[in-house]
Amino acid sequence: MVLAKRIGQIKPSPTLAIDTKCKALAAQGVDIVNFGIGEPDFDTPDNIRQAAIQAIREGFTRYTAVGGIPDLKEAIIQKFKADNNLDYRPEEIVVSCGGKHSLYNLFQVLFERGDEVMVPAPYWVSYPPMLLLAEAVPVIVATPEDNGFKLTPERLRECLTPRTKGLILNSPSNPTGSVYTRQELEALAEVILEHHLFVISDDIYEKILFDGQEFVSLAQLDPELKARTFVLNGVSKTYAMTGWRIGYMAGLETVIKAVTKIQSQSTSNPNSIAQKAAVEALRGPQDSVAAMVQEFAWRRDDILSRLAQLPGVSCMRPGGAFYVFPNFSQYYKYLQPGPEESFSDVLANYLLEEAHVAVVAGSGFGEDNCLRFSYATSRERIATGVERLRQALEKLGG
Ligand SMILES: Cc1ncc(COP(=O)(O)O)c(C=O)c1O
Predict the structure, then answer these.
(1) Are residues 278 and 303 in the same domain?
(2) What are residue 340's DSSP bridge partners?
(3) 365 in the same domain as 309
(4) Residue 174: CB within 6 Å of ligand 1?
(5) What pLDDT, in 10s, does the model give residues 26-52?
(6) Is the CB of 181 under 6 A from ligand 1?
(7) pLDDT digits (tens, 9 = 90+) for 220-258
(8) In the beta sheet, which residues pair with residue 395?
(9) Residue 90: domain span
(10) Based on the domain organization, do 235 and 110 belong to the same domain?
(11) Alpha-carbon distances of 336 from 37, 354, 357, rounded to whole Å
(12) Which of 85, 113, 165, 195 has the highest local Cβ count within 10 Å?
């Protein structure tokens, strides 16, 4: 069977692949410590679940408006105003089947064959494949670890070409947990405006922020910038709602209308019941978010102090999200990757097989020196996992 060429350009998501592997091993009775998974280990708060049950009871089970029900759009508009001081109209908002879906559709609408889009590395695994599916060219811009893996205006300028059309920013970042400050965004904004770039601001980890930091979205900085920025957000991470598949995006009306048109010819509306639940998530009590963030902050400190005790491993202190991205390159001298493999793939596989610890290889995030750990797992599992890791690394020669 000959498949369309476009599908040959992309690989399955490595984060989902590791999860599949873990589930298969767990089904064989192997006790895996799973640092691979990119979702909160908390349950969706009860008030949100009750809203969904209520929606079913009331028979809210039919097709809805393709781009989201008016009530949810209104709740999103209020969220943008309250949290980010951003004003949007309903025509500037689209609700999709997860943030991933909004992004995929946006890339289809914004970019054409050959358009270059800057993707600062380390990046979330799905940006380059989604750009390739839109026939755009992902331009991977390496960022230095000693700058917290953040893009600087100098790096941005160096990589600009006449074909550069867009830039993706993700703060707090998956996989590094880095957070851009207002000053850092302002410095980038100058170059963005000078070169009339479109920006995709992936704010999905907005609320998972530590140490009393302020969250700043690029769109907040300047009205001209707001007109060039598409703000991506969703309920998956903030409200432990990954399975419900509700994400949303705000931006220029013409683009949002085109994104909605794609939905009208592909998925139709996002799930009606999940939309009602998302209204409750955004409008209801927010104390579960604060409790979750507090727990993540504790675990971040805990895993950092445990990793710091592993010889040859260094790790930047993340300001947000629920990931750490430690550097294991000191161990690469003991590894021999095959022709299609990278060092981080080999190490991640070794750790899964030898220690029964699942982590995601940095290669999928554009940084082969590191491994991504999600600490969305219990305190006890973190302790067990890092101890197993220590023993496996010792065996390797460290
Ligand atoms: C950086 C980033 N953006 C967007 C998403 C999309 O999340 P969802 O499709 O669940 O809304 C994810 C999920 O892993 C993510 O890590």
Answers:
(1) no
(2) none
(3) yes
(4) yes
(5) 899 999 999 998 899 999 999 999 999
(6) no
(7) 999 999 999 999 999 999 999 999 999 999 999 999 999
(8) none
(9) 47-283
(10) yes
(11) 26, 16, 20
(12) 165
